[in-house]
């Protein structure tokens, strides 16, 4: 596939209930490798993504579900890690050949907070034609 440039924006917050991390990432795959219309390929892609995510934090998968995100095929999953003391929430989707990943990590007691939901619900799609720029 060659080299893939991965872009990430990260916000690290220390609050009364502990450290929380909010993260948004994206990368562009070569056009012939993945596309949001390739449903069989996307199922395999998301399964591998979830598995890799679980392994990367040495955690336990607590939940996963295929879901449309902003009208595009996506996956939502939650991982308990750090011996069950922390939770990693993830939502991912593919738009054309661009992969988006939005995540939050927090202590278990804070993992289902309104702030986390606000963060996940803040994702918006800006049409390339209307914005005069990229995706």
Name the overall outline. globular
Q: What is the rounded distance between the termini?
A: 22 Å
Low-confidence stretches: none
The biggest sheet, with number of strands, parallel, antiparallel or mixed sense and barrel status, is: 6 strands, antiparallel
Strand content: over 45%
Structural class: alpha+beta
Strand adjacency order, main sheet:
1-2-6-5-4-3
Count of DSSP H/I helices = 3
Rounded radius of gyration (Å):
15 Å
- Note the run of SSEs as H and E: EEHEEEEHH
Describe it.
The protein has about 140 residues and is α+β, with helices and mostly antiparallel strands. Helices cover about 20% and strands about 45% of the residues. The protein is built from three helices and six strands, in the order E-E-H-E-E-E-E-H-H. It has helices at about 40-55, 115-120, 130, and strands at about 5-15, 20-30, 60-70, 70-80, 85-95, 100-105. Strands 1-2-6-5-4-3 form a six-stranded antiparallel beta sheet, sandwiched between helices. The longest helix is centred in the middle third of the chain and has 18 residues, at about 40-55. The radius of gyration is 15 Å and the shape is globular. About 20% of the residues are buried. The model has no long low-confidence stretch (mean pLDDT about 85).
